[in-house]
C-alpha cells in the first residue's frame, strides 16, 4: 500500500510539473520550463518526451553545445528517427556543417523541417545547384506562412551562383515585393556586371525597407542601422567597381563608424578599403586588417571571400616590408589552393623586392612546369621580369614558348618591337612568318581547302610587308604585297608599294605593273583653289591684286625678283673696351667655372681681430678707435686718392659721416653700462 501511495504521489507531482513546463513553454519562458523538465527527469531519467523537451529548451536558450551533449549521452533512447532535426540543427548552429549534412541524410524520414535545414546546409557548403533544387521542391510542395522566406532563400542562391560561379541566372519569376528580394536581385546583377541596374535595385530595396518600418513594431535603432549598413555596403562596392573610389571610401568609413555587429560585413568593408589604399596609406590598412581577423568571420563569408582577404593580407605584408609574414601567408595560400596563380605571383614579387630576380624566375618556371594550364600567365610574368633585368632576347624566347598566344596580333606586335629594339630583324620577320602560316593553316582547316583571308590575317600580311620595306627587305616584301594586291586589286596604295619594291629588283616588272595604276585624269580632284586658300584654316592666303600705277608697274617688273636686304645692326661694345687687349676667351662662362677662379677669400678682417696676447694692440688699433676718429677734424679726400681710401680705410666719407659729439659718446656710455651689469660691478 505504501509503495502504491508513493507511486501515486510521484505521478501527481510529475503531472503538475508537466503542466507547469507546458505553460512556461507556451509563454516563451524556456528557462523555467527547463527547470520543470529537469525535475521530471529526476523522477524518470529515461523519459523520451522529457529528454526531447529538455533538448528543445536548451536550443531555445541558445545552449546548442549542451543540447548536443544531451543527445549524444542518451543515444539509446534518443534515436536518429526521434531527434534527427534537433541534432542536425545543433550541429548546423555550431558550424559543424558536414556533420549536419550526414545527420540529415541518415534520417529515415525526410520531414519538411529537415528539408528546410537541408537547403540551408547545402548553401553553407556552397553546393548551389543542389540547394536550388531543394528550395524549388520545397516551394512546389508546401503551402504555409513561410513561403516568402523560401523565395528569399531561393533568390539568395541565384545571386550566389551569379557572383561566385559566374552562372547566368535564370528568371525565376519572383515578384520583388520585399527589400530582401530586391537586395538579392541586385547582387545577381552585380555578378553579371550590370552595375547601374544593380544600384537602382539597391535604392529600391532601401525604399522598401524604410516603408516597412511603418508597420514593424519593437524595431530598435540598431536593427535599422544593421539592415541599412548591408545595403549601403553593397552600394559602396558598386561605386568602387565603377571607379568612384572617393565616394566608395567615404561610404565605407561611414558604415564602420556605426560599429555594426555583423563581423562578416565589417570584414568585407575593411578588405575593400585595403584594396583602395593599395600601397598607399599603409597605416590605415594595418588598422583595418584587424577587422578581418574577428572571431567568427570564417563562418560568415564564402570561401572566395576568405581567400581574397588572405591574398590582400599577404600583399599588405609585402608593402609594409614584412617579408617573413608575406612568405608565410603566401605559402599557406599555396598549400590550400596549389593551382592558384596569386600565391606564387606574390612570392615572386617579394623576391623581386629583395633583388632576387633569378630566384623569382626559377619559382615561376617550376610552377609553370607543374601546372601547364596556367603556364601562359606565368610565362608572361617571367618575360616581364627578364625585360626588367635587361634580358630582352631571353624575354622573347619565353614569349615565343607560349604556343596558344604566338599568333595573337598583340603578341606578334610585342615580339617584333622587342626584336627591333635589339636590331634582330631576321627574328622579327620570322615571328611575322610563323603567325601568317598559323592563320593560313587555321583558315584552310575551317574552310575545307578554300583560301579566303580573314581581316586579322590580311592585317598581319600588311604589317609584315611594311616592316620589311622599312628595313630595306624589298625582295622579301614583294610576296606579301602581291598577296595583298591579289586579295584587293583595287588597292592603289598596295600597288604603289609593289611597284616601288619592284623598281629596285625588276624594273621591267615595275613598268608592267605601273600600267594598272589609274590615269591622272581619274585621280584628279575637283578642288576650288581660291576657296581653299581663302578658307579659315588656310596657313597661306593670297593677297588680293590691286590696281598698279605706272611707277609701281615698273618697280614690279624691274625689281620683282629682288628682295630687300635688311641692314644688320652693329653690336654694342662695352664702355671699357680696349681694342689692343685681347678679350678673355672664358668671358662667357660663369665666374665659378673659369680656370683662373680661386674662390672667395673669406675672413680677412676676422683674422686680424683677437690675435696676440690679451691687452696687446695691433698696428691697426688706432684706426679702430672710434673716439679718435670722432674728435679728429674731417678732412676732404684728394681727387686722385678717393678709390684707394674707400678700399683700404674704415673712415666714413664726409657726406655720410655722423657729426662728432653727443651721439657717439652716448652710445659709448650705454655700452659701458651694459658691460657693468653683465660683470656684476
Automatic annotation (TrEMBL):
One of the protein's GO biological processes = SRP-dependent cotranslational protein targeting to membrane
Q: Which family does it belong to?
A: Belongs to the SRP72 family.
Q: Where in the cell is it found?
A: Cytoplasm; Endoplasmic reticulum
Keywords per UniProt: Acetylation, Coiled coil, Cytoplasm, Endoplasmic reticulum, Isopeptide bond, Phosphoprotein, Repeat, Ribonucleoprotein, Signal recognition particle, TPR repeat, Ubl conjugation
Mark out the compositionally biased spans (Basic and acidic residues): 575-596
Q: Name one GO molecular function term.
A: ribosome binding
Protein name listed in UniProt: Signal recognition particle subunit SRP72
Q: Identify the gene encoding this protein.
A: Srp72
* Record-linked InterPro entries: Signal_recog_part_SRP72_RNA-bd (IPR013699), SRP72 (IPR026270), SRP72_TPR-like (IPR031545), TPR-like_helical_dom_sf (IPR011990), TPR_rpt (IPR019734)
Question: What the protein does?
Answer: Component of the signal recognition particle (SRP) complex, a ribonucleoprotein complex that mediates the cotranslational targeting of secretory and membrane proteins to the endoplasmic reticulum (ER). The SRP complex interacts with the signal sequence in nascent secretory and membrane proteins and directs them to the membrane of the ER. The SRP complex targets the ribosome-nascent chain complex to the SRP receptor (SR), which is anchored in the ER, where SR compaction and GTPase rearrangement drive cotranslational protein translocation into the ER.
* Native species: Balaeniceps rex (Shoebill)
Where it mainly occurs, coarsely classed, is cytoplasm
**Which Gene Ontology CC terms are recorded?**
cytosol; endoplasmic reticulum; signal recognition particle, endoplasmic reticulum targeting
Which Pfam families is this protein grouped with?
SRP72, SRP_TPR_like
Amino acid at each position: 500500500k505504501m509503495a502504491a501511495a508513493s507511486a501515486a504521489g510521484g505521478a501527481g507531482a510529475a503531472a503538475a510539473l508537466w503542466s507547469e513546463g507546458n505553460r512556461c513553454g507556451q509563454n516563451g519562458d524556456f528557462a523555467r520550463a527547463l527547470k520543470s523538465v529537469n525535475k521530471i527527469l529526476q523522477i524518470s531519467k529515461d523519459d523520451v518526451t522529457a529528454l526531447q523537451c529538455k533538448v528543445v529548451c536548451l536550443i531555445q536558450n541558445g545552449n546548442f553545445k549542451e543540447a548536443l551533449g544531451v543527445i549524444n549521452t542518451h543515444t539509446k533512447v534518443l534515436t536518429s528517427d526521434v531527434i534527427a532535426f534537433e541534432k542536425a540543427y545543433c550541429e548546423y548552429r555550431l558550424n559543424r556543417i558536414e556533420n549536419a549534412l550526414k545527420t540529415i541524410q541518415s534520417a529515415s524520414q525526410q520531414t519538411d523541417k529537415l528539408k528546410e535545414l537541408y537547403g540551408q546546409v547545402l548553401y553553407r557548403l556552397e553546393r548551389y545547384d543542389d540547394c536550388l533544387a531543394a528550395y524549388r521542391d520545397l516551394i512546389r510542395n508546401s503551402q504555409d506562412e513561410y513561403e516568402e522566406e523560401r523565395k528569399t532563400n531561393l533568390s539568395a542562391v541565384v545571386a550566389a551562383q551569379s557572383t561566385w560561379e559566374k552562372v547566368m541566372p535564370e528568371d525565376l519569376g519572383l515578384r520583388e515585393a520585399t527589400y530582401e528580394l530586391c537586395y538579392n536581385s541586385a547582387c545577381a546583377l552585380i555578378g553579371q556586371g550590370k552595375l547601374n541596374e544593380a544600384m537602382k535595385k539597391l535604392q529600391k530595396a532601401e525604399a522598401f525597407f524604410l516603408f516597412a518600418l511603418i508597420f514593424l513594431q519593437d524595431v530598435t535603432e540598431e536593427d535599422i542601422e544593421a539592415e541599412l549598413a548591408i545595403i549601403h555596403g553593397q552600394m559602396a562596392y558598386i561605386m568602387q567597381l565603377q571607379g568612384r573610389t572617393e565616394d566608395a571610401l567615404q561610404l565605407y568609413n561611414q558604415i564602420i563608424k556605426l560599429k555594426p555587429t555583423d563581423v562578416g560585413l565589417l570584414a568585407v568593408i575593411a578588405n575593400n578599403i585595403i584594396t583602395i589604399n593599395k600601397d598607399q596609406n599603409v597605416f590605415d590598412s594595418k588598422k583595418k586588417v584587424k577587422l578581418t581577423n574577428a572571431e567568427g568571420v570564417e563562418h560568415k563569408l564564402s570561401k572566395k571571400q576568405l581567400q581574397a582577404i588572405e591574398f590582400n593580407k599577404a600583399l599588405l605584408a609585402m608593402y609594409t616590408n614584412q617579408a617573413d609574414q608575406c612568405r608565410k601567408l603566401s605559402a599557406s595560400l599555396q598549400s590550400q589552393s596549389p593551382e592558384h596563380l596569386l600565391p606564387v605571383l606574390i612570392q615572386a614579387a617579394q623576391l623581386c623586392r629583395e633583388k632576387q630576380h633569378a630566384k623569382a624566375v626559377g619559382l615561376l618556371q617550376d610552377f609553370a612546369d607543374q601546372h601547364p594550364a596556367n603556364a601562359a600567365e606565368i610565362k608572361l610574368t617571367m618575360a616581364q621580369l627578364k625585360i626588367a633585368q635587361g634580358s630582352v632576347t631571353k624575354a622573347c624566347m619565353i614569349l615565343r614558348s607560349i604556343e596558344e598566344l604566338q599568333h595573337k596580333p598583340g603578341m606578334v606586335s610585342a615580339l617584333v618591337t622587342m626584336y627591333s629594339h635589339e636590331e634582330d630583324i631576321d627574328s622579327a620577320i620570322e615571328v611575322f612568318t610563323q603567325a601568317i602560316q598559323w592563320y593560313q593553316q587555321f583558315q584552310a582547316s575551317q574552310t575545307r581547302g578554300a583560301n579566303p583571308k580573314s581581316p586579322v590575317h590580311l592585317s598581319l600580311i600588311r604589317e609584315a610587308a611594311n616592316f620589311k620595306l622599312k628595313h630595306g627587305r624589298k625582295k622579301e616584301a614583294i610576296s606579301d604585297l602581291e598577296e595583298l594586291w591579289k586579295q584587293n586589286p583595287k588597292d592603289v596604295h598596295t600597288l604603289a608599294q609593289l611597284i616601288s619594291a619592284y623598281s629596285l629588283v625588276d624594273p621591267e616588272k615595275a613598268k608592267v605593273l605601273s600600267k594598272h595604276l589609274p590615269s591622272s585624269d581619274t585621280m584628279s580632284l575637283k578642288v576650288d583653289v581660291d576657296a581653299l586658300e581663302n578658307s579659315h584654316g588656310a596657313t597661306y592666303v593670297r593677297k588680293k591684286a590691286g590696281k598698279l600705277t605706272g611707277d609701281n608697274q615698273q618697280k614690279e617688273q624691274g625689281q620683282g625678283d629682288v628682295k630687300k636686304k635688311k641692314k644688320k645692326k652693329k653690336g654694342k661694345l662695352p664702355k671699357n673696351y680696349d681694342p689692343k687687349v685681347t678679350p678673355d676667351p672664358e668671358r662667357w662662362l660663369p665666374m665659378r667655372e673659369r680656370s683662373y677662379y680661386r674662390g672667395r677669400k673669406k675672413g680677412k678682417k676676422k683674422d686680424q681681430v683677437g690675435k696676440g696676447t690679451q691687452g696687446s694692440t695691433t698696428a691697426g688699433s688706432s684706426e679702430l678707435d672710434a673716439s679718435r676718429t670722432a674728435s679728429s677734424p674731417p678732412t676732404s679726400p684728394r681727387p686722385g686718392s678717393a678709390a684707394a681710401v674707400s678700399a683700404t680705410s674704415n673712415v666714413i666719407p664726409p657726406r655720410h659721416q655722423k657729426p662728432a659729439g653727443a651721439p657717439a659718446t652716448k652710445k659709448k656710455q650705454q655700452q659701458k653700462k651694459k658691460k657693468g651689469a653683465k660683470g656684476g660691478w
